[in-house]
Amino acid sequence: MNETMLAAVYHGPDDLRVEAVPLPAISAEEILVKVVNSSICGTDLRILHGGHRKYPSGTVRIPGHEVVGDIAAVGAQVRGLSVGQRVFVAPNMGCGNCRQCVSGNNNLCANYDAIGITIDGAFAEYLRIPSAAILQGNVMPLDPGIDPAAAALVEPFACVLRGQNAVGVQVGDIVVVVGAGPIGVMHMQLARLRGASCVIASEMIPERRAQTQHFGADLAAAPEELHEVVNKVSRGEGADVVIVAAPAHKAQESAVQIAAIGGRINFFGGLPKDRPTINVDSNVIHYKELIVTGTTACSTNDCRQAAAIVNSGRIDLSPLVSARYPLRDAVQAFAMAEDRKSLKVVLQP
Ligand SMILES: [Zn+2]
Ligand SMILES: [Zn+2]
Fold first, then answer.
1. Are 298 and 155 in contact (CB under 8 A)?
2. Do residues 188 and 208 lie in contact, with contact meaning Cβ atoms separated by under 8 Å?
3. Which residues pair with 337 in a beta bridge?
4. Which pLDDT tens digit goes with each residue over 111-144?
5. Which residues are CB-contacts of 177 (< 8 A; sequence separation ≥ 6)?
6. Which listed ligand is nearest to 298 at the C-alpha?
7. Ligand 1 centroid from CA 28, angstroms
8. DSSP label of 272
9. How many angstroms is it from 341 CA to the middle of ligand 1?
10. CA 90 – CA 299 distance, rounded (Å)
11. What is the CB-side half-sphere exposure of residue 53 using CA atoms within 13 A?
């Protein structure tokens, strides 16, 4: 009973080691998932560099929270799941009984647990799914025909969906997406699916700007050209929706300027912890009757809706996958993910 598996284990800041660890044991209320695909996200990079508050010094843990796998073992008490099923696992588990959890916003629960954040995650051959995740509906069957690397992106896509639900992107809207990283391009794809009349991408890095047309952007602008492009497309009215998916003070500040009267704004990306303040002309918000929203992470319900959209084939997230690495090359994969020209880097045990 001392079986082992391969895993990429965080041992401290910038110390990720691929090593053999014990195969997780499951209780009668838990399941074991054989990881098919797990993708690296910005949160994982923050964890690696020692900047995540749930990874305090001394933490030794397996990260990885964007996961698709096949059920390998099912505890005797678990109902409704069976060995061999292809599943996506939503990472966040709320406490289940606080005000946020009860209202469906378990991403805002103060006492949350999350796979790859507070407990061992998916940069491993196998992943233990705790009973809370099973009972709260985090384990969602996926069409096995879908590219597992793309399906692992259901979680970030769910965060994107939450952001656009907050600003109600609808048919005919002129939508500006600031930032053309993986999150930004998912926003472009989704805005198009929701019927935007024009999707304008704003991005600083030329390589990233150039590829936005493959992701549903009608126009791309460098930050300094954005105001002019928006004015031209909207005949001076401004953008109906501005989504800031870049950790940029300037982009948040100019969002209120380029928004139309009655425009809706989503601050999707957070700012650095030590410099979270921006300078905004509050009268612009007042006189234009702007709606300024923020969203963070995603609830299990957002994941359910995102999985349904991905399962439907209406959106193809595969073009976002820039590189696929075997788990044993996790350290190189993290270095590649660090390169701001790549979109999503995934690990395949
Ligand atoms: Zn993520
Ligand atoms: Zn809660």
1. yes
2. no
3. none
4. 999 999 999 999 999 999 999 999 999 999 999 9
5. 184, 187, 188, 191, 199, 200, 201, 202, 217, 243, 245
6. 1
7. 29
8. P
9. 18
10. 8
11. 2
Quickly list DSSP for 240-269. Answer: EEEEE-S--HHHHHHHHHHEEEEEEEEE-S
Instruction: State in Å: Cα 137 to ligand 2 middle.
Output: 15
CA of 297 to the centre of ligand 1 (A): 8
Scan for tokens 């406490």, then name that residue. 95
Please tell me the distance between residue 191's alpha carbon and the centre of ligand 2 in angstroms: 30
List pLDDT tens digits, range 55-103.
999 999 999 999 999 999 999 999 999 999 999 999 999 999 999 999 9
Per-residue tokens: 255: 């969002």
Provide DSSP, 77-132.
Answer: T--S--TT-EEEE--EE--SSSHHHHTT-GGG-TT-EEBTTTB--SSBSEEEE-HH
Find the ligand nearest to 47 CA. Answer: 1
Is it the case that residue 276 has pLDDT exceeding 70?
yes
Report CA(288)–ligand 1 centroid distance (Å).
34
322 three-state secondary structure: strand
Residue 310 Cα to ligand 1 midpoint, Å, equals 17
Q: What span, in angstroms and rounded, lies between the C-alpha atoms of 303 and 308?
A: 8
Domains delineated in the chain: 4-153+317-348 (3.90.180.10), 160-294 (3.40.50.720)
Q: What is the per-residue pLDDT for 269? A: 87
Mark residue 24 as left, alpha or beta (left: phi above 0; alpha: psi -120 to 50; beta: remaining).
Answer: beta
Q: Please provide residue 59's backbone torsions phi and psi, each rounded to the nearest 5 degrees.
A: -75, 130
CA distance 107 to 5: 30
Cα 284 to averaged position of ligand 1 atoms, centre (Å):
33
| 211-260 confidence digits (pLDDT tens) | 999 999 999 999 999 999 999 999 999 999 999 999 999 999 999 999 99
